[in-house]
Design goal:
The protein has helices at about 15-20, 35-45, 50-60, 65-75, 75-85, 90-95, 125-130, 200-210, 215-220, 225-230, 235, 250-260, 275-285, 295-305, 325-335, 340-345. By secondary structure, the protein is mainly alpha-helical. Helix 2 (about 35-45) packs across helix 4 (about 65-75). The longest helix has 14 residues, at about 295-305. It contains 16 helices and no strands. It has a domain at about 200-265 and about 285-345.
Length: about 350
């Protein structure tokens, strides 16, 4: 057989090419529970071999600062349509990852950084969560200024890289590395030490988080009052008296919670004298069930206001309950918000 006899097969792009080759991007990643949209976008970019900064151009955006964080606040319809077409993640799934879905916007940490040590950073993280994740991701609730502890592990959150003290800025990453590595210095955030958090501060944190669901806040007449009083919590501590909660770092907000003069440990049940027993009976009559969110929103708003001599959130409900008693009762009624969380973090250590 001569070379003339060898006939190469004809190869051409046929009309059915679009029928056998998908228009979707090569790799799709599934959203994780409570995942922040920007976190999912960064993981999607990395899985497809594109750095987060360059991925902005793929979406038709300017790759400047905060491009993905801005999408957390508002996802334009054209970008949602593009993401659905390229990944198959539905518009409802995309909307559920934004901050407009179920979180009080007044309590969100702002998109800014003035470089001051005590000022807020836009995002917090739990190093244990990142270490446990098969694919490390950032949670939506880590954007709330009222959160200083991890719901899963009970440890205090961080809002800066412990190596260079820079904020979390995965949106500005030009290299192809996972989002849990610091953009500025390359530190693996999963290796961060766990800052100390007192059991009482943890209980306050979880109590606020359990009570302040968006639905309950919007339905309760005391909801707006509670939001205002949560924002003014720094005024109780004195040192940050001119600041509002959303303007402070995680460490500073933790300090403000501790300055509410909560006890370091809840009283151990046991023998009580007559006065203590009478007070315990009074509290049992006044404390509502944990399922009554509206009543708890009112109680918490009144208690926080009382510390500054402010009027009650509603008329005719001057119970005189002190904050330690209120949170102690809540911790006993809702064990997941109290001591069991402490037992899971027996290896806490101070920074």
């Amino acid at each position: 057989m001569t070379a003339v006899d060898i006939v190469a097969p004809a190869i051409s792009i046929g009309e059915r090419y679009r029928d056998v080759v998908s228009d979707r991007w090569p790799v799709t990643v599934a959203p994780q529970p409570d995942e922040l949209l920007s976190s999912w976008l960064h993981r999607l970019a990395y899985a497809n071999g594109v750095s987060p900064r360059a991925f902005a151009r793929v979406l038709g955006l300017n790759p400047g600062m905060w491009w993905s964080a801005a999408l957390d606040m508002r996802l334009p319809a054209d970008i949602a349509k593009l993401l659905y077409a390229k990944t198959g993640v539905t518009p409802d799934q995309l909307a559920a990852m934004t901050l407009s879905h179920g979180l009080p916007k007044e309590l969100l940490l702002p998109l800014r950084d003035n470089g001051h040590r005590d000022s807020s950073a836009w995002l917090q993280f739990c190093c244990r969560c990142l270490a446990d994740d098969a694919q490390p991701y950032f949670r939506r609730r880590w954007r709330l200024a009222t959160r200083v502890s991890c719901t899963e592990h009970g440890c205090r959150l961080r809002d800066r890289c412990p190596s260079c003290l820079g904020r979390i800025a995965a949106f500005d990453q030009a290299a192809l590395v996972p989002q849990h590595y610091c953009v500025a210095c390359g530190y693996d955030l999963r290796r961060a030490s766990i800052p100390y958090l007192s059991p009482a501060t943890r209980t306050l944190d979880r109590c606020i988080d359990d009570i302040c669901s968006l639905e309950a806040m919007t339905q309760s007449p005391s909801g707006p009052v509670l939001i205002r009083r949560l924002l003014s919590m720094p005024s109780v501590g004195g040192y940050y008296s001119t600041m509002i909660l959303t303007s402070l770092s995680t460490a500073a907000r933790t300090y403000c919670a501790q300055r509410l003069n909560l006890p370091s440990e809840w009283p151990v049940e046991g023998a009580k004298d007559d006065d203590e027993e009478r007070e315990a009976r009074r509290l049992r009559r006044l404390i509502p069930p944990t399922s009554d969110h509206r009543a708890w929103i009112e109680l918490l708003a009144n208690t926080l206001g009382r510390r500054r001599g402010r009027p009650a959130a509603s008329k005719g409900n001057e119970t005189g309950i002190k904050l330690p008693d209120l949170l102690g009762a809540y911790a006993k009624m809702s064990p997941a918000s109290g001591r069991p969380a402490q037992e899971r973090i027996g290896t806490e250590r101070r920074p």
